[in-house]
C-alpha cells in the first residue's frame, strides 16, 4: 500500500501502536466505552488508533465521566470550556456519548495537520513544512499538539523537547504511547508475515542529511530513533541478513537485503539475534538497540541503501512510506 501525504482517504496507523484490538475489562477499557472509542477512531479517516483515544481517556480522567480538574477541565475527556465549544457540537461535556466522539474529532484534526503541516498556515513560527523532517510519528505529533497546542509542534518541528513546559508535553506523549500499547491486546498485532514496519519504537531524532562534524561524510547518512539501550529492533520488511557483526564506527550492525534490491541497515546495537544468511520477516526482532561504536548516547541509527555498503544511502522516510509505514 502506498502511504499518502494527503489528508483524505484512509491511511495506515503508526506501526508500533496499531494492530490488535482494544483490551477490555480489568486493566483495560471499561466495556461500556469500547464501542464509543472504536467508533470515534473509525470515524477519523487519518488513521487514528482506538488505543490512543483509550490511553488519553485513561490518563485524562481514569475513564471517569464526572471528573473535573482545578483548571476547569470537564468530563471523561477533560475538555476545557473553550475547546468544548469548538469540538462538542453542542453536546453535553459530561456525557461520554458526546465527549468521546468530540475527542476523536479533535485528535483527528491534529493527525491531519501532523500529516500535512504545510496545508495550514496559522502559526506565528513555521520553519519546517516537510512532514518527513518532523521529529515524531504523526500520532506522536498529534498528541503533542493535543497537550501543548499545534503551534508548539510547528515551533519545534516535532514533539517539543523535555525543556519545554517542564517536560509536561514530552512526558505526555511518552505516557500515552506506552499506555496505548498496554491497552492493546497482543497477539493480533505484528503477526502478519511480510508486513513492513518502523525499525523500533521511539521518536525520530537526528534527521537524514543533517550536516555536522560528527559524520565522516559531512552529513548524516540515515535517521536516528531515540530509544534507550535494550529496546527491540525489528526488520523493517522481509529479507535476508547479509551482515551481522562489528562495523567500526557503526558498532554492532545488521544489514538486510530486501526483494526490491534495497538494503536496510541498523547500527549501534547492544545485541544481535540474527546471523548472516538468516531469512527474516517484516517486524521480526533482529536485536536490541544500544550505544556501540561511535555514538554520544544510545539510539538506533537506521539507513536505507541502494547497495550493501556505506555511501549508497537514500532517504529512509519516503522508502518506508512507500511500503505503507506511517512515519
Ligand atoms: Zn545516526
From TrEMBL:
Organism of this sequence: Streptomyces lonegramiae
Please list where the region (Disordered) is annotated: 1-21
Q: Which CDD domains match?
A: M23_peptidase (cd12797), Slt35-like (cd13399)
Would you tell me the protein name for this molecule? Peptidoglycan DD-metalloendopeptidase family protein
Task: Tell me which InterPro entries the record gives.
Answer: Cell_wall_metabolism_enzyme, Dup_hybrid_motif, Lysozyme-like_dom_sf, M23ase_b-sheet_dom, Transglycosylase_SLT_dom_1
Query: Which SUPFAM superfamilies has this protein been placed in?
Result: Duplicated hybrid motif (SSF51261), Lysozyme-like (SSF53955)
Question: Where does the UniProt annotation place the signal sequence?
Answer: none
User: What Pfam family is a match for this entry?
Assistant: SLT
Amino acid at each position: 500500500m502506498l502511504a499518502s501525504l494527503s489528508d483524505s482517504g484512509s491511511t495506515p496507523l503508526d506501526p508500533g501502536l496499531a494492530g490488535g484490538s482494544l483490551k477490555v475489562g480489568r486493566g483495560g477499557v471499561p466495556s461500556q466505552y469500547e464501542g464509543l472509542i472504536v467508533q470515534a477512531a473509525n470515524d477519523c479517516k487519518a488513521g487514528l488508533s482506538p488505543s490512543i483515544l483509550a490511553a488519553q481517556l485513561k490518563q485524562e480522567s481514569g475513564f471517569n465521566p464526572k471528573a473535573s480538574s482545578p483548571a476547569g477541565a470537564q468530563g471523561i475527556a477533560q475538555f476545557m470550556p473553550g475547546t468544548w465549544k469548538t469540538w462538542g457540537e453542542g453536546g453535553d461535556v459530561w456525557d461520554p456519548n458526546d465527549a468521546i466522539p468530540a475527542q476523536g474529532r479533535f485528535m483527528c484534526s491534529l493527525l491531519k495537520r501532523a500529516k500535512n503541516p504545510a496545508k495550514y498556515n496559522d502559526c506565528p513560527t513555521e520553519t519546517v513544512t516537510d512532514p518527513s523532517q518532523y521529529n515524531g510519528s504523526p500520532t506522536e505529533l498529534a498528541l503533542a499538539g493535543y497537550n501543548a497546542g499545534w503551534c508548539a509542534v510547528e515551533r519545534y518541528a516535532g514533539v517539543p523537547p523535555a525543556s519545554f513546559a517542564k517536560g509536561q508535553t514530552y512526558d505526555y506523549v511518552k505516557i500515552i504511547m506506552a499506555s496505548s500499547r498496554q491497552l492493546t491486546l497482543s497477539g493480533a498485532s505484528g503477526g502478519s508475515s511480510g508486513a513492513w514496519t518502523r525499525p523500533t519504537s521511539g521518536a525520530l531524532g537526528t534527521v537524514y542529511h543533517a550536516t555536522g562534524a560528527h559524520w565522516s561524510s559531512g552529513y548524516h547518512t540515515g535517521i536516528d530513533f531515540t530509544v534507550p539501550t535494550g529496546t527491540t529492533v525489528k526488520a523493517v520488511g522481509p529479507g535476508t541478513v547479509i551482515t551481522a557483526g562489528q562495523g567500526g564506527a557503526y558498532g554492532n550492525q545488521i544489514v538486510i537485503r530486501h526483494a526490491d534490491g534495497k538494503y536496510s541497515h541498523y547500527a549501534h546495537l547492544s545485541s544481535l539475534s540474527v546471523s548472516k544468511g538468516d531469512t527474516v520477516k517484516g517486524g521480526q526482532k533482529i536485536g536490541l538497540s544500544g550505544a556501540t561504536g561511535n555514538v554520544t548516547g544510545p539510539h538506533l541509527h537506521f539507513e536505507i541503501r541502494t547497495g550493501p555498503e556505506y555511501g549508497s544511502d537514500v532517504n529512509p522516510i519516503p522508502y518506508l512510506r512507500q511500503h505503507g509505514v506511517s512515519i
